[in-house]
Write a structure and sequence with these properties.
It is built from three helices and four strands; from the N terminus they run βαβααββ. By secondary structure, the protein is α+β, with helices and mostly antiparallel strands. It has a single domain, classed as GTP cyclohydrolase I, C-terminal domain/NADPH-dependent 7-cyano-7-deazaguanine reductase, N-terminal domain (GTP Cyclohydrolase I, domain 2, 2-Layer Sandwich), CATH 3.30.1130.10. It is an enzyme of class 4 (lyase).
């Protein structure tokens, strides 16, 4: 069986995340990288979006999950994102997500968490 990989590179959004006092008061930027493997079960028909997994739907799910409520830990947030993607999109066989906080430290580009899960 063939696999098609959909990926997002540095999807940028503002989220309410963290346990520090300043993180509890304001949003902060997150960068999200994702690789989503989809089992290819049918031929792609160029005029029919229904023959592929529409990556707009994946993006919307990721953004909504990251912005709907305050979350204390990146570890919790990344679990929620992966759980949602696997629950909503049956055609996903593997998902790898990396969520990073680019402003967490002044001496590095970002700090983050990566999680990979397969069915």
């Amino acid at each position: 069986m063939s696999t098609r990989r959909i990926f997002f590179s540095q999807l940028a959004l503002d989220a309410r995340i963290g346990i520090l006092e300043h993180e509890l008061r304001a949003t902060q930027p997150l960068h999200i990288d994702a690789e989503i493997d989809v089992d290819v079960t049918q031929q792609v028909h160029d005029q029919n979006i229904q023959t592929v997994l529409d990556y707009r739907l994946l993006r919307n799910a990721i953004v909504q999950e990251c912005t709907q409520a305050h979350v204390n830990l990146l570890e919790t947030l990344i679990e929620q994102v992966v759980d949602r993607l696997l629950a909503e999109f049956a055609e996903i066989s593997r998902v790898k997500i990396r969520i990073s906080k680019p402003n967490a430290f002044s001496d590095c580009a970002a700090v983050g968490i990566e999680l990979q899960r397969s069915r």
